[in-house]
Amino acid sequence: MSLSFYRFGTAINWSALSSIGNSRIAQLTVIMPFVGYLIVFNTTLSDYFSTILPAALGNETADFWTFLYSRNLYFLYFGLLFFGSGVALFNVAAPPQIRRFPVVESYISAMGTIKTPSLVIVSFEKVIEMYFDNLHGEERSPLFSSTRIGFPYDVNADLHRFVESLYLAIDLSQEDSELAGSLFEESFRSGSGYILTDEILETAYSGNRVVKILQKQLLDESVAHPNDVFYLEHRALDYTQGLTRIAVFLFYATGSVLLVLPSIVTSIVILKLW
Question: Which of 11, 31, 56, 252 is deepest in the core (most CB within 10 A)?
């Protein structure tokens, strides 16, 4: 994946798209194509919109701009169609958490009022699931600059920093230490002492009985840091369904261009007559 596409794909997250998708006025455009259809195929209205200025152009030779002016009603119709399609797709595809709380601080505050240990664990495991679903092989390493628009590098880095803090806070019981102590001390540190957080996640979710202790310890520690978990969850959800996000943006952009085109064309025609 090219760097330019990665930057484009990560710039268009659900939070950015929500500024339009959550707008009440924008949401009305979902039904406007149906209303526009009735207008475009209503002979009286169509003739009215198409003959206001052309009467003043009776002595003018038809050119490119007058031709575009005669199609203004169609530009408006298709502009509303594309824009409304983008709004509809946003409301269908965007995660409900992002639609309701586009700002991460608002999401953390709202979740803080209802948090329970089970809710925190579910949120943390959802982030881990997105990590495994989107990244493969060396992409899971914190040292690798992933270019996956579904789980960007900065989200990956935030996750690894959090997992490292959880790992360092683990305090094994005597029984767990006898069973998995050597694993904790030897397997997750590089020769230079660097903590291998990607190995911690891989091992914790491998299904082995011994390393289930590691998984349980990570989850138990995460409960003590709900705000960090909810922050990671919001950040990860913000970048889900990369191609759908791009499609929503393209619908918005195409619709906006078509909607503004009649004003530009009409202005040029008027200036020509001035």
Answer: 252
Interatomic CA distance for residues 50 and 36, integer angstroms: 15
- The number of helices, as runs of H, and strands, as runs of E, in the chain is 16, 0
Which 3 state secondary structure label does DSSP give 10? helix
Contact present, 211 and 179 (Cβ < 8 Å): no
- The enclosing H or E element of 169 equals helix 153-169
The SS3 assignment for 167 reads helix
pLDDT digits (tens, 9 = 90+) for 9-62: 999 999 999 999 888 777 777 666 666 666 666 656 656 555 555 555 555 556
Convert 37-51 into a string of H (helix), E (strand) and C (coil).
Answer: HHHHCCHHHHHHHHH
pTM, two decimal places = 0.83
Q: Which residues in 91-108 are b (16+ Cβ under 10 Å) and which e?
A: bebbbebbbebbebeebb
The beta-strand segments (E) located in the chain are: none
Q: Which two tokens stand for residue 159?
A: 């996750």
Amino acid at 245: R
What's the rounded Cα separation, in Å, for the pair 114 and 16?
26
